[in-house]
Amino acid sequence: MTTILNEGRIGQFLSKAGFPMSQRVFVEEYETPRHAEEHATLHELALSLHRGNLALILSGTLEASEERKQMVRVASTHLLSGINTLVSILSLTEKLSLKVKEAIALSRVFYETALVAAFTCVGGPERARRAELYSVYKTFRNQTQAHQAGGFVLRVSRVARISRKDPQIVAALEMFGGSSRIRPCFEENREEMTESVTSFDARAGLLFGGVEGMIHEVSSEIIHGSFHGYALFDSLHNGKSEMEDKLLAHHEMVLFAVSLSIAALSRVIGRSFDMEDTMGELERSCISSLLPYVPDDMAAQLRALYPD
Exposure string (b/e) for 39-70, b if CB count within 10 Å is 16 or more? Predict the structure, then answer.
């Protein structure tokens, strides 16, 4: 990685030492046919998810009850959030580079968005209502924030205040309370959410569990800024071919995490909203996209689960 160096003492020192100067910050980028193929696959999955979400939104217009409409609204909002994350991943990974480190962190964001969406769907109207009211609750509670650093307290307040008498605010405070401690939307952790999804659809839970084991630990190292979180991706001892191979392996991890997350969520949405045909096709495309990159024994198992 080459970084910007000003013509100051540090720049003069490095110039004398024989290091090249640069006037911009950048990371080295690599291009390989395999990465181009994987990136195209990832883009196609993002596009298919977008189409699936449009089908979900259209199905919501046909729902008779407001509760079902709310469930569709919450699920489609989660999907929009996930699609936005995928756009960011695609931008970071257009070429092979150290940007894949941040793409792995975002693949965890995508996975958790999909898991929460699935958990909300399997909980029926009550969880969908809770999700919407939590957004109202959090917006209201965050109108005034106090942050303490050392002996100083900084208060930030919204100028346009939301009335406590607003019907949605009243409903949100009835659900989450008005104590000084802001409560979470759901009390369940990821493991408990996965168990809930598994009880609704065992295969969806299995797919989510695979993503959890694949990316959560490494993404935590990245997100929390550990030394190891960077050392996993770069080393001064890596040559060009070694660097390409390492970055390509990490990019495949992103592809796997996204594919399995979409497949799992597709199963849940398909069963929750009577969209098995549309979402089943998306699920199968996710699994088939992985077949060229997995060992033969795993590919055989996936084909057994998803026969043509």
Answer: bebbbebbebbbebbebbbebbeeeeeeebbb
